Every structure is written in C-alpha cells, then in structure tokens.
Inverse folding.
C-alpha cells in the first residue's frame, strides 16, 4: 500500500554507494493555472514510483515515474479535456568535496575543488528530497503548450461559435462583404 509523501528522507535509507531501493508512493500535485483557467491534476493522490541509488560520495541518483490526468477546458473547443501524461524524470544530486577544508590559511581554495564540481538538484536539501515540488515541476515540463480534448480537435467556428467537432463537416458561412468596397457594387456597366 502506497503512502502520501511530500518530502522523502534519503538519509534515513542508510544506503551504501551503489546500493538502491524502489518505493511506491502517493504524491499530491497542485492544480495548474493556464490561460486564466484552473486545471486540476488527478487522481487526488498520484501513484508514483521512486528509485533511489546512492552514488560515490554523498550523492544520490533519483528517478521518478508516474501517470497523471490534467482536467479542464480544451483550449480549442472549450469542452472538458482530460489527457493523461506519463512522466519519467531523473535527478542527480552529487555535492562536491566537503567545504570544511576548502580554504587554506593563505585564503586559496583547496586542491581538487574547482568551480562547477558540484552537481546538485534543486529538489534535494541535505538528505531530504522535495518529492512534491519535483513531481509538479516534472509534470509541468511534460504538458504541451495547448491542452486539448483530443489531438484532432477542430475547435470553434470563428463566425458562429459552433463546436466544429459536433457539426457537419461541410459547416460554412457566406463570406461577409467588405464595406469599403460597397460603392463599387453599385456600378453598372451597360
């Protein structure tokens, strides 16, 4: 049985380098606001699989997988949309050497510590993983620019506003005449 997890204690696992574990968890993902509309994420608690591996040193290699449904109005036809998104996200948190000996008495940096030696994840603080924030951000990256009820959604008619998914395929309107050319229609050539 999975449990709701917003923060995950990586240090409590007591993993040795090269060792890993897999966890089935439930994570809550807050709704998105897109184009002024609210798009909730379902189910309320999204079942997720978390793989944690200890790297050499004090770091972790992390993998998060889940499927979530984002519901709300289709951005073309305004009908209810509920597309399913699969997320497979990876993070690595590999802090650099211990900073306690980073400066010598002359103020120079210790050997082996260069700028950019650290590979840190914004979701790992010490030994705690912000699973809630990581899941939401990973889902946000998986979302398309437009949420649609279906891939071939035809949208709304620009003239009458009819849902083009529900009307006949030959739905059309007489083109409106441009009022700037109205006087020319009064010309008669005999």
């Amino acid at each position: 049985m999975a449990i709701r997890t917003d923060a995950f204690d990586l240090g409590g696992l007591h993993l040795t380098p090269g060792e890993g574990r897999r966890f089935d968890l439930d994570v809550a993902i807050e709704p998105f606001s897109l184009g002024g509309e609210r798009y909730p994420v379902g189910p309320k608690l999204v079942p997720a699989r978390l793989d944690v591996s200890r790297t050499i040193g004090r770091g972790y290699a992390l993998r998060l997988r889940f499927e979530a449904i984002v519901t709300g109005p289709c951005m073309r036809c305004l009908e209810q949309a509920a597309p399913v998104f699969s997320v497979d996200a990876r993070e690595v948190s590999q802090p650099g050497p211990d900073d306690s000996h980073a400066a010598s008495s002359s103020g120079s940096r210790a050997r082996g510590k260069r700028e950019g030696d650290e590979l840190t994840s914004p979701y790992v603080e010490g030994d705690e993983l912000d699973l809630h924030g990581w899941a939401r951000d990973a889902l946000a990256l998986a979302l398309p620019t437009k949420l649609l009820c279906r891939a071939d959604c035809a949208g709304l008619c620009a003239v009458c506003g009819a849902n083009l998914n529900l009307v006949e395929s030959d739905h059309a309107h007489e083109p409106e005449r441009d009022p700037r050319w109205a006087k020319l229609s009064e010309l008669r050539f005999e």
